[in-house]
């Protein structure tokens, strides 16, 4: 059985304990991943701390070139890493799956390598000049989830490295292998100690995020873990970028042509079998359009092949783990017991954590499937009679990561979009993130943003030099 390793100071390390990782589609063993101790975390943080000064002194131009080299390594190893992601996480190679995840990794590496944060004269008059400079923070702890393991790790580590920080990354205990391999490969073009890993569950995450030598925490995951990380950061006062859960509402404006938007709606909700932070998780449809929308979505859902993602024709894979599989089943059962119309699509394999693509009609606010983040392939569809009601429904939860408005008229859509409380409100698309466009949650979906210039600023500390003329 293959054993995978952490990388610390540019070297592959040995661990005393390991866990076996299984393919969620087949149940096959994929190999052993390390389970680290507190001592291992200390060693990795020390390696990052020792490397940070020299890395910060590398010229900005040279760091840009090194990050561009990282993009090339990712490109060259895309097929290998995509295969690991599919076997470990479940999303198919094809469609918006693991090859798509690798393209995103490359894109989200190239863009920061092309950006520069120049000193900014924030004030000047006859008497004074004030210039804001941006410096690295130091050692960044990056804690990643299991749904887009490589892409989200890249979102965390690349801006940090680009700005002269060093990183200790902990992948999710559900999906460590692809990440450990990606970090091993990237290390071929990075100075030792710039990017290190530790592996294990939340206990190791807690040791890392509370470590006194951590200067910044990048966290993507659930709200409950986010709250624990805020508490942990009282140990080191590290600023945090918190990307937490979502329960994104989509509102279809009255009279919108259903067939024209059904494909966009479908993938907006079922991308990665719904295991995406900014997926449509509640769909609000005007009562007059309800039947047409359900028919159009059913037409798309009935044509999407489900199965082992290593088979090129499959476009939807399994849920990643038993916990998530059971949670989605439970929420759908609750909806069924409460009178919802449960419509299931797809030939579901008998092994693995597969669930059918599920539309849940006649759903209502207050039901568990509507109010809780399902993170799976079950979309509740809720009728509304007035746009004011639909807007109030969309805003009634504390989750506020994304939202979308779907309409024939862009002008009308923008009016509703401006009333929705979310970090991003998309019009006629959902989850359409871009490496230049800041992304982050409002309310209980977190704080701080990633991507673009704002994302780079988030991994720096500002210092002002104020000169009397
Ligand atoms: P999770 O919170 O269970 O785990 C995320 C990571 O935190 C894992 O690496 C885990 O080991 C670690 N962790 C757990 N306890 C910890 C602790 N006390 N201290 C430090 N680290 C700890 O989340 P998950 O189930 O892996 O991910 C799914 C959630 O993530 C969903 O809610 C989803 O919406 C959210 N998510 C948000 C975004 C975003 O950009 N906002 C993106 C993807 C996923």
Structural features, described:
The chain has 469 residues and is α/β, with parallel strands linked by helices. It folds into 2 domains: 263 residues, 3-Layer(aba) Sandwich (Aldehyde Dehydrogenase, Chain A, domain 1); 187 residues, Aldehyde Dehydrogenase, Chain A, domain 2 (3-Layer(aba) Sandwich). 38% of the residues lie in helices and 23% in strands. The protein has 15 helices and 22 strands. It has a 7-stranded mixed sheet with strand order 14-15-16-13-12-18-19, sandwiched between helices. Helix 2 runs antiparallel to helix 4 and helix 3 runs antiparallel to helix 6. The model has no long low-confidence stretch (mean pLDDT 98). Bound molecules: nicotinamide-adenine-dinucleotide. The site of nicotinamide-adenine-dinucleotide has 31 residues, from helix 7 and helix 8.
Query: Which descriptor suits the 3D outline?
Result: globular
- CATH architecture verdict of the largest domain: 3-Layer(aba) Sandwich
When the domains are counted, the total is: 2
Q: What is the tally of beta strands?
A: 22
Poorly predicted regions: none
Strand order of the largest sheet: 14-15-16-13-12-18-19
């Amino acid at each position: 059985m293959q054993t995978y390793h952490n990388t610390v100071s540019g070297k592959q390390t040995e661990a005393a304990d390991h866990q076996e990782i299984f393919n969620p589609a087949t149940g096959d063993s994929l190999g052993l991943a390390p389970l680290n101790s507190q001592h291992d975390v200390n060693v990795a943080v020390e390696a990052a701390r020792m490397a940070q000064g020299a890395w910060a002194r590398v010229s900005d131009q040279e760091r840009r070139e090194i990050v561009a080299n990282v993009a090339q390594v990712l490109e060259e190893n895309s097929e290998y890493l995509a295969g690991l992601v599919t076997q470990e996480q479940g999303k198919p190679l094809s469609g918006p799956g693991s090859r798509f995840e690798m393209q995103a990794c490359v894109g989200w590496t190239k863009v920061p390598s092309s950006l520069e944060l120049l000193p900014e004269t924030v004030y000047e008059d006859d008497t004074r000049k004030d210039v804001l400079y941006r410096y690295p923070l130091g050692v960044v702890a990056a804690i990643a989830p299991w749904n887009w393991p490589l892409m989200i790790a890249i979102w965390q580590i690349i801006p940090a490295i680009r700005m002269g920080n060093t990183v200790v990354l902990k992948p999710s205990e559900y999906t460590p292998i692809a990440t450990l391999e990606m970090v091993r490969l990237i290390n071929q073009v990075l100075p030792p100690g710039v990017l290190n890993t530790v592996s294990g569950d939340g206990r190791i995450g807690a040791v890392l995020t509370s470590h006194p030598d951590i200067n910044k925490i990048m966290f993507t995951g659930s709200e409950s873990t986010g709250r624990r990380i805020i508490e942990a950061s009282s140990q080191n006062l590290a600023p945090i970028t918190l990307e937490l859960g979502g329960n994104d509402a989509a509102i279809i404006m009255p009279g919108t042509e259903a067939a024209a938007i059904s494909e966009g709606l479908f993938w907006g909700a079922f991308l990665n079998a719904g295991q995406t932070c900014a997926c449509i998780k509640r769909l609000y449809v005007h009562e007059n359009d309800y039947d047409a929308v359900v028919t159009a979505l059913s037409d798309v859902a009935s044509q999407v092949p489900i199965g082992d993602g290593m088979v090129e024709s499959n476009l939807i894979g399994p849920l990643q783990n038993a916990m998530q599989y059971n949670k989605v089943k439970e929420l759908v059962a609750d909806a069924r017991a409460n009178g919802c119309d449960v419509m299931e699509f797809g030939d579901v394999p008998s092994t693995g954590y597969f669930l059918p693509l599920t539309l849940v009609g006649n759903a209502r606010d207050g039901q568990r499937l509507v109010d809780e983040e399902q993170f799976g392939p079950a979309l509740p569809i809720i009728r509304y009679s007035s746009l004011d009601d639909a807007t109030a429904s969309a805003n009634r939860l504390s989750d506020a990561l994304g939202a979308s408005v779907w309409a024939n008229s862009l002008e009308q859509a923008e009016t509703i979009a401006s009333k929705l409380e979310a970090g991003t409100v998309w019009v006629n698309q959902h989850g359409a993130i871009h490496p230049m466009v800041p992304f982050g949650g409002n309310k209980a979906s977190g704080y701080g943003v990633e991507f673009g210039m704002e994302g780079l600023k988030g991994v720096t500390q500002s210092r002002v030099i104020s000169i009397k003329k």
